[in-house]
Amino acid sequence: MNTEELKNELFYKPKHAAVVSGEETVSRANIFAEGYKEFLNNAKTEREATAVIKAQAQRRGFVEFDPYKQYKQGEKVFFVNRDKSIILAVIGKKPLNEGVKIAAAHIDSPRLDLKPNPLYESDELALFKTHYYGGIKKYQWVAIPLALHGVIIKADGTKVDVKIGEEEGEPKFVISDILPHLGAEQGKRTLSEGIAGEELNVIVGSLPFKNDEGSELVKLNVLKLLNEKYGIKEADFLSAELEVVPAFKADDIGFDRGLVGSYGHDDRVCAYPAAMAAFDVENPEFTVLTVLTDKEETGSDGNTGLQSDYMKNFIAYLAKGNGLDVFEVLSKSECLSADVNSAYDPTFNSVFEKNNTSFLNKGVVITKYTGARGKAGTSDASAEYMGKIRRMLDEDNIIWQIGELGKVDAGGGGTVAKYIANLDVDVVDLGVPVLSMHAPYEVISKLDIYMAYRAFVKFFEQK
Ligand code: MN
Ligand code: MN
After folding, report:
1. Residue 256 falls within a domain, yes or no?
2. 387 and 291, same structural domain?
3. Is residue 255 part of a domain?
4. CA 253 / ligand 1 centre spacing (Å)
């Protein structure tokens, strides 16, 4: 063996997925990305993602879960939790006390939520007050086109769906910023204070109700329009969940179209391939679950997040149907916590430690632990489980890489992994690297999402 051969044999050197896997894989990845882009454009919120995946599940023969039924091998079910999270399950050949295989991703993304009493008028402009959801850099949300999505429960209890600013010809919304000519004072603020939370006010109207004398005529006019369109009054905002999201569509990025730019890759870039894997798996040995959850971006609290018992309860019902206790199933179960990691950024490279960072186009990123400050707040996957997942991926030449979220003590972050691990399940994070994570327009690689899809399929097809 010469030096180069020995290096190839012994070194860990992740390579570009296109180089390793060739043209056919690139073209398959391109096709897969088309379906993903459509999903991104139709599912910008957790409610929309739930509805889209539910509809696709039904088209593919999944039926609504009946907790009191005993399911047989090959049956396909879905369970919707409060319209904001969904579980897909395919019943396997093996008994449940041999465990289930779980792929868990989240379908909520950072955004601006309307406050409970959002509408006001100032100097003949009507605006919405917002309270941001998840970790955002506030300055990124001004002076970009915005859309409004969500639901309103009216006084009589009826529900109205809202989606405005997405279709061609529909109005959009915007948050203003100071012009550079007058930005000297603002420029003295630190970047994180450049735009304050209470400055994230969305412009929603500018014309008065008739040219009558009186105050708040622009606000009145906006409410009149909303009343005509949705039948709502101002007090109905209290019982609403209205989310302001970027009005951008998903697009290819670069002359070679290798990347996709979009709002909400975190974590639809894992949720979509995890759902597709549940749809495409045929007669799995183990029972497989794709869990698409809500509330990850605010810490997984609440009854639609994975700190709640809803996933455990779903598995408990499955277990009960087979005369088992839920712990007998969970302790033998395995999970891929399907979430994104930060992709190395050549422009802002100082926050990364290059040997332990994921790169665009180098495949799915396996993140052994998340957390911050001495691994606090992580479940940290075991060497044994890492070994098993690595072997599984290598078996089918699924391109993978190692990732840590930035340098030690540079910051950090978490996923749902620890909440599932705390149920006595083996868990590791496996997902897709994202550039500009949590920005209104994030970037991923088509090859990486395709590798994630292949990883979830392989995970579900384990013998
Ligand atoms: Mn995430
Ligand atoms: Mn996130």
Report:
1. no
2. yes
3. no
4. 21
The distance from CA 16 to its chain's CA centroid, rounded to whole angstroms, is 25
- Number of domain units in the chain: 2
332-356 mean pLDDT: 97
Name residues with Cβ closer than 5 Å to ligand 2, which is an ion.
266
Distance 418 CA to ligand 2 centre (A): 15
* 327 plus 443 within the same structural domain: yes
The answer to whether residues 141 and 15 belong to one domain is no
Angle between the N-to-C axes of helices 23-42 and 265-280, in degrees from 0 to 180, rounded to the nearest 10: 110
Taking residues 294-308, report their average pLDDT.
98
Residues of 213-247 as b/e, b for ≥16 C-beta within 10 angstroms?
eeebbbbbbbbeebeeeeebeeebbeebbbbbbbb
> The pTM is what?
0.97
SS (H, E, C) 357-380: CECCCCCEEEECCCEECCCECCCC
| CA 391 to ligand 1 center in whole angstroms | 25
Give the single-character DSSP code of 195: S
Alpha helix segments (H runs only) across 110-166: none
In this predicted structure, what is the pLDDT of residue 318? 97
Distance 315 CA to ligand 1 centre (A): 23
Does the pLDDT of residue 211 top 80, yes or no?
no
Cα of 438 from ligand 2 centre, angstroms: 6
Model confidence pLDDT, tens digit, residues 240-298: 999 999 999 999 999 999 999 999 999 999 999 999 999 999 999 999 999 999 999 99
Using 50, 70 and 90 to split pLDDT, how confident is the model at 1? Answer: confident
Residue that finishes a domain, picked among 185, 215, 246: 246
Residues of the chain with pLDDT > 70, as a percent, come to 100
Nearest ligand to the CA atom of 341: 1
Distance 390 CA to ligand 1 centre (A): 22
- What distance in angstroms lies between residue 106's CA and the mean position of ligand 1's atoms? 7
**Ligand 1 (single-atom ion) residues, CB below 5 Å:** 266-267, 339
Average pLDDT estimate for 397-405: 95
Cα(383) to centroid(ligand 2), Å: 26
Residue 204 shares a structural domain with residue 352: no
